[in-house]
Design brief:
By secondary structure, the chain is of the alpha+beta class. It has two domains: 90 residues, Phosphorylase Kinase, domain 1 (2-Layer Sandwich), CATH 3.30.200; 183 residues, Aminoglycoside phosphotransferase (APH), C-terminal lobe (Aminoglycoside 3'-phosphotransferase, Chain: A, domain 2), CATH 3.90.1200. 47% of the residues lie in helices and 13% in strands. The strands form three sheets. A five-stranded antiparallel beta sheet has the order 1-2-3-5-4, with helices on both faces. A two-stranded antiparallel sheet has the order 6-9. The protein has a two-stranded antiparallel ribbon with strand order 7-8. A hairpin with a 3-residue loop joins strand 4 and strand 5. Helix 8 crosses helix 10. It starts with 8 loop residues before the first helix and ends with a helix.
């Protein structure tokens, strides 16, 4: 339960935010349950009547380039997109969002042909939405992550690789669209009615469709055949882009950038948590770049 007499500044901030929208909160016991996730900082709040999600803003999230105020603004801009939760409120330390009922897809379901077709349609719908107020500053993100990596893990080869990405020109843009940028099974829900829903919008931004799709492919280790089928749905079935081969090539151009961002993210999370699972996740990426 949330202790209404707590002197913890984070709890006080959460209670203040809750009380602004639920005036009886200080007289009503709320339970708080941490939810699983690699980024951390997400909690289920419940008081027997209401359920909602609280997402914290602390040094862990800040070092990962997460801004709950930006996430709140993007969710407000998605009010007409029924596959995202509604934003409730935000302050300096917390974001409150709607709790959505449903279940995350099992691995076998996620990689099934039918599910990938349904997901492609959802991605197309998002990419056709009006743009967000936030554009992804990719090179600034790379520079930001580099500041929070353990200096003892910065090898000469790693520093050369970092200079390469800081100095190399970005792939030319095909088409800028709003994108989620963190699509995987744990960020998806299948609602009781069968609708597909997208959660956790902290990395959402306007970006090139090639970068957005390459991020999805790499993060979920889709095979070449699976990628081609997804792009076929995207281009031929849902008519989101006319040049299928051009988009496929664009995704390949963006892939090293995506993998480098993923590697840096895992390094920052290891530096924060000292949890070796992040080094294990990053090892295939280090091998991809010839760093180990």
């Amino acid at each position: 339960m949330i202790d209404s007499t707590s002197s913890d500044p984070a709890i006080i901030s959460l209670l203040d935010l809750l009380s602004a929208h639920y005036p009886q909160v200080r007289q009503t016991p709320w339970s708080i349950t941490p939810l699983a996730g690699l980024s951390g900082g997400t909690y289920l709040l419940a008081n027997g009547i209401e359920k909602l999600i609280a997402r914290s803003q602390n040094v862990t999230q800040t070092n990962l380039s997460v801004s709950r105020k930006k996430e709140h603004a993007i969710l407000r801009q998605l009010n007409d997109f029924d596959a995202a939760p509604q934003a409730i409120a935000v302050n300096r330390q917390w974001l409150l969002v709607e709790w959505l009922p449903g279940i995350s897809p099992e691995t076998s379901t996620f990689y099934s042909a039918d599910f990938q077709r349904q997901l492609a349609q959802l991605v197309v719908t998002l990419h056709q939405h009006h743009r967000f107020s936030y554009h992804l500053p990719l090179r600034e993100e790379i520079s930001h992550y580099a500041r929070w990596i353990d200096p003892r893990r910065k090898t000469p080869a790693g520093l050369r690789l970092h200079r390469h990405f800081m100095r190399s020109p970005l792939p030319k843009t095909l088409k800028i669209t709003p994108a989620h940028m963190d699509i995987h099974a744990d960020n998806l829900l299948i609602s009781p009615s069968g609708q597909l829903l997208l959660l956790d919008w902290e990395y959402a931004a306007n970006t090139d469709i090639g970068l957005s799709l390459a991020c999805y492919f790499s993060a979920n280790n889709l095979s070449l055949e699976q990628r081609q089928i997804f792009l076929s749905h995207y281009c031929l079935d849902y008519h989101a882009y006319t040049d299928l081969s051009g988009l496929e090539n664009q995704c390949q151009l963006w892939e090293p950038w995506v993998k480098y961002m993923m590697l840096m993210w895992y390094e920052v999370r290891w530096q924060q948590s000292k949890n070796d699972q992040f080094l294990q996740h990053g090892q295939p990426l280090r091998q991809y770049f010839g760093l180990s």
